[in-house]
């Protein structure tokens, strides 16, 4: 009975978050804060009658918090998404998890479903824009496939290959039983690894390759199938995301710019020569760079100034709370089928 109440309440909170994220581009803290009050009561009541699951609950919650912090730090989702993810793991009843003895943490499958569905949506949406709506997208600068890109891809491949080899050596059966999870994390990290630039990256890439080969030989020999899958994973995820990047931006009328929007780097660069006060000075093209109402008003004034433009480039906002809800529903459907 109480499990059903917890699930309905969790779905309700995720639905509200998805709607506000879709319409307003925000997951409101007050909703989650107020939602924690009845959620805490439900959790206490549930685990009072299921004390054998408290350890599983705490281990899963700690893993979820760690993921929330890491992915927020890597700018792979916003603060609201992190909080909603933690809320989900706090309220989700342990009795509804599908687990094995070697699973890293119970909500691992929900996590994978969320990001796989988000990745699939972005890729399919890009295909729709390109081939059905005949939109070429916005490419800020043409990039040639040169030696630097090869080195960037080699760095990503060597880094992930070494990490996978170390995980296989030290984690043994846990790694083998959770390879899909590690593959998903690899897909999510590929763009970060390719894009990161620092002095000595080529040298470090060579060192990583040597360490990978040495580690593979010491642990029983080169696993060519694993290496091939890692190379395929990096190449497919990198080039599919590069294709989708063209549709990350859109032109809007400068007069229609409003608070909460995220400006592109190109747009902010256009403000450098302007004397209009209050214009945004920087952006990292994530939710951390949402403009305020005052900045939106300054942009409206900028349009009428000497360097003003009728249109301005903004970052298309994708409401990630929708994918958290979709991943949760997909998981629940799977649980009902299995049970």
TrEMBL record:
Keywords: Membrane, Transmembrane, Transmembrane helix. The keyword Cytoplasm does not apply. Signal peptide: none annotated. It comes from the Bacteria. Residues 9-111 form the Prepilin type IV endopeptidase peptidase domain. The chain crosses the membrane at residues 6-22, 31-48, 54-72, 105-129, 150-172, 178-196, 203-221, 227-244, 314-338. The keyword Membrane applies. InterPro entries: Prepilin_IV_endopep_pep. Gene3D superfamilies: 1.20.120.1220. This is Prepilin peptidase. It comes from Jingyaoa shaoxingensis.
């Amino acid at each position: 009975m109480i499990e059903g109440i917890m699930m309905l309440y969790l779905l309700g909170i995720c639905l509200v978050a998805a709607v506000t994220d879709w319409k307003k581009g925000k997951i409101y803290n007050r909703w989650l804060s107020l939602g924690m009050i009845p959620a805490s009561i439900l959790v206490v009541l549930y685990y009072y009658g299921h004390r054998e699951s408290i350890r599983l609950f705490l281990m899963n919650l700690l893993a979820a918090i760690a993921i929330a912090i890491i992915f927020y730090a890597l700018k792979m989702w916003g603060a609201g998404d992190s909080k909603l993810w933690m809320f989900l793991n706090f309220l989700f009843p342990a009795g509804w998890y599908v687990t094995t003895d070697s699973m890293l943490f119970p909500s691992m499958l929900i996590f994978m479903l969320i990001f796989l569905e988000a990745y699939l949506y972005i890729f399919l949406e890009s295909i729709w824009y390109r081939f059905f709506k005949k939109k070429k997208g916005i490419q800020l600068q043409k990039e040639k496939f040169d030696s630097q890109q090869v080195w960037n891809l080699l760095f990503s491949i060597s880094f992930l290959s070494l990490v996978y080899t170390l995980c296989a050596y030290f984690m043994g059966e846990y790694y083998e039983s959770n390879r899909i999870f590690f593959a998903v994390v690899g897909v999510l990290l590929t763009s970060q690894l390719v894009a990161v630039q620092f002095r000595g990256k080529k040298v470090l890439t060579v060192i990583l390759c040597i360490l990978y080969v040495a580690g593979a030989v010491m642990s029983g020999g080169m696993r060519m199938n694993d290496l091939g899958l890692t190379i395929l994973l990096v190449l497919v995820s990198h080039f599919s995301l590069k294709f989708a990047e063209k549709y990350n931006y859109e032109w809007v009328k400068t007069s229609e710019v409003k608070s909460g929007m995220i400006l592109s780097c190109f747009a902010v660069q256009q403000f450098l020569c302007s004397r209009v006060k209050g214009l945004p000075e920087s952006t990292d093209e994530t939710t951390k760079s949402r403009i305020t109402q005052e900045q939106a008003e300054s942009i409206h004034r900028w349009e009428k100034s000497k360097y003003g433009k009728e249109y301005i480039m903004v970052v298309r906002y994708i409401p990630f709370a929708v994918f958290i809800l979709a991943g949760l529903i997909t998981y629940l459907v799977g649980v009902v089928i299995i049970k």
